[in-house]
Amino acid sequence: MSSMVDTRSPAIKSRDDLTALRDSVKSRRSTYKYTAYVCGGAGCVSSRCDEIVKALTKAVEDGGLDRDVRIVVTGCIGLCAQGPCMIVGSREAGDKGDVFYGFLTPEKVAVIAETHLKGGKIAEELCYQDPDTGRRLPYTKDIGFFSQQVKIALRNCGRIDFADIEDYIANDGYAALGKVLFDMGREKTVQELIDSGLRGRGGAGFPTGVKWQSGMNAPGSQKYIICNADEGDPGAFMDRSVLEGDPHSVIEALCIGGYVIGANRGFVYVRAEYPLAVDRLTAALEQARQRGLLGENILGADFSFDIEIRIGAGAFVCGEETALMNSVEGKRGEPRQKPPFPFQVGLWGAPSIINNVETLANVPAIINKGAEWFASYGVGKSRGTKVFALAGDIINTGIIEIPMGMTLRNIVFTMGGGMKDGKAFKAIQSGGPSGGCLTADHLDVSVDYESLAAMGAIMGSGGLIAMDEDTCLVDTARYFMEFVQDESCGHCVPCRNGTKRMLELLLKITSGRGALEDIDELSELAAVVNQTAMCQLGQTAPNPVLTTLRYFKDEYLSHVVDKKCPARICRALAVYAIDPGRCTGCTACARKCPVGAITGEVKKPHVIDTEKCIKCGVCKDTCKFDAVNC
Amino acid sequence: MSTTQQHEAGGAVHCTGTEEELEKRVRQLAASYKGKEGSLIQVLHMVQSVYGYLPLHIQQIVAEELELPLSTVSGVVSFYSFFATKPRGRHTIRVCMGTACYVRGGVSIVEALEKQLGIQAGGTTEDGVFTFEIARCIGSCGLAPAMTIDDTVYPEVKAADLPEILEPWYGN
Q1: What is the ipTM metric for this complex?
Q2: Which of B3, B75, B82 has the CB atom closest to A279's CB atom?
């Protein structure tokens, strides 16, 4: 975060320059006894990690530890729930001995510096506490959240200084570009990607190597490669973590892709909601240009390439590739008819290849380590790993990368640490507004493209939201429908009108006015919108409704037949009542009730007149004795 | 495009100056992008950071300088939620209503803010300090419910914390 670009840093003109720089940076780094990786991910920034860095820097200086301890502000470590956090790596112990410290404060940092960094003894009382046993687990290898991860796309997140290109190079950065330019060439690179089984991580799962092959074979002197960083699914922040924590991996992959397909210009389309990602990517691009890793004759090869950032302006539909291209062109982000596909007629009519951030981040690792190594992870047609954003009513919220094929149960309970506040697990939402809600019955299913699709959900971009017993799934379906209805660009009728009608039906049901035929109509409309909408946004919009209808039909029936919301979320269906055993007769609720529906004598239990009650909930919010039920 | 300008895309920072000065700056800014393909959205981001919002006469200036029909400029402005055609407050509050924040109680934050600011989501306070909006997802799902004021992210917000969160923003 703090390291400025050294203006004296020489350009890297050849592969030998790159190797020499890598070795010299590595040897410089090897003198430190400890490396403290302080998380500078967006989550920890909002938890004020800057104060932690300041405190640690001071403690290291005051303790005379400058030569022993290297402080690195790094990308997302993953465990957002415990931010601000850091990992202490030690030269002697290697990777196995990484120690995790969460919930940091400047005071705790001073203790860690004194005990661990100076004294060589782990400050165990400040280490991760197992939510089940209460035991302190200092090492990441013993913490479920970390131990089951395999980091390929996130290999550098939490391990390098995102603001320093030399740190990236020291970790074999830009070596894959050199290998492609001088050893492999276009055809072999494409074949390597095809063999690796890498598929698009943005949701659609199209084989990346095949896509690049199409781009390579497409006729045309002007071609483009685009990175889709318009991560719009609510609940997804994987791409954000990669861009903020390891921007050079995306830049390097775009260079490789540009070379393979024959493009000399690349674009990264980032959503406007991610200013930090834009800043860090901008800085990384400047460094890459300064070192000659972008520009003319990269690494001395007959290849010139540069990248521009395009910032979105708040439109969910722009995550759809053809809408995104319109937006890069500065137009309204409405989707285009496919075919022709982008590799045929893309940006400004030229053949264009669009890849998601996470997909690209995998590419340099595959080139360096080989297709076989990558394909050794995963199951069936889903090879490699997938990054997921864990959020919702789960203890360990954050970012994880796991080999495909792991079960949802493992993700939720071992890595996620289970549900918050001892509540019961009810559902997990995968894939955002295009995905679906799965139940406890699905916890043992393998997480891969095919298995999730078979259940009506999708892998999507990787957002996983765990929901506890207090969640109303009909309300959740309404939430998603409201989202897509609002974000529908209005271009085609099925999406524009269909989602509107579906939302109206859901509102009718959640407000207690629903009838049984509304449920049938909802299913029918869902099928029509799915089959006739123009782009993916519209086609997948009914998924949350379809999956909740399939797995939580009882809940719909409760709303429609019994006029009850079992989770007590839908306010219009609530019946407010005062528990006479708890009510102290303080009169607070009666004074606050806007319609005078509450009566009773002072110091005696009060009563709510359900005829008058407008279900505003003020009484429940006002009561200090938890006596109002609904 | 400089980093500062890009950074302002997310916030409500805008310049001060007389109407004439601001219009002149808008004109110069737009003119410097003339003929650069596909720059309309990026120009509008920058113009909004200069003028604060994008009323019709400002869209007209952009259209003239980029030699685009006004309908094209207006079509883009109305398509994207980040572009405002009405004056905005000095600061923009965005309460996240992404799935994680919704599940973790984002609604209560919206309701409490509506009460405290005396405006509905989408509105601007009478004193011109805050514009209050709902955000789709700001990607702070691990720390839900979250909200932002300009570019500052507030994690795990509770309704009771709001007065303390808003207080420092009134002064600047």
Answers
A1: 0.89
A2: B3
